[in-house]
Amino acid sequence: MSINNRLEQLIIKTATTRSNFSKATGISTVILSHIGSGRNKVSLAAVEQILTAYPEVNSEWLIMGKGQMFKQGPNEEYISELEAKLDAVYNEVEKTKRAMDVSLNTLKTTISKLKG
């Protein structure tokens, strides 16, 4: 598969239309059309614009056709960050719950003493 074909696949996956892809990357729709038809090859400048607009794209896939379309690393790092944040929030909720349980038990004890 040629770089032109890979670019067409990338447009469908990331922006759905050449117009949207053009807006995101700054590559004119005319150039994208010429690349799609095979009239033009993808330039180094276009590759740079694509990778700047879509940093999650695997440059080796785009240029050479090797590997997956999207990098795997950043997503895994992002998931790890979210898991850590979720754990921190969970721990804070548990701490607050324990404090509320202590307060509730204190209030129940006080009410029992007042009732006599």
* Dominant shape: rod-shaped
- Portion in beta strands: under 5%
Helix-residue proportion: over 70%
Rg, alpha carbons: 27 Å
Q: How far apart are the termini? A: 85 Å
How many beta-strand runs? 0
What count of structural domains? 2
Q: Total helix count?
A: 6
CATH architecture classification of the largest domain: Orthogonal Bundle
The mean pLDDT is 94
- What summary fits the major beta sheet? none
Output the helix-strand order.
Answer: HHHHHH
Q: Output the structural class.
A: mainly alpha
Q: Give me the CATH fold name of the largest domain.
A: 434 Repressor (Amino-terminal Domain)
CATH class of the largest domain, named Mainly Alpha
Low-confidence stretches: none
Outline the structure in words:
- This protein is an all-alpha fold.
- It folds into two domains: 3-64, 434 Repressor (Amino-terminal Domain) (Orthogonal Bundle); 72-116.
- The protein is 76% helix and 0% strand.
- It has six helices and no strands.
- It has helices at 3-14, 18-25, 29-37, 44-53, 59-64, 73-115.
- The chain is rod-shaped, with a radius of gyration of 27 Å.
- The relative contact order is 0.09.
- The mean pLDDT is 94.
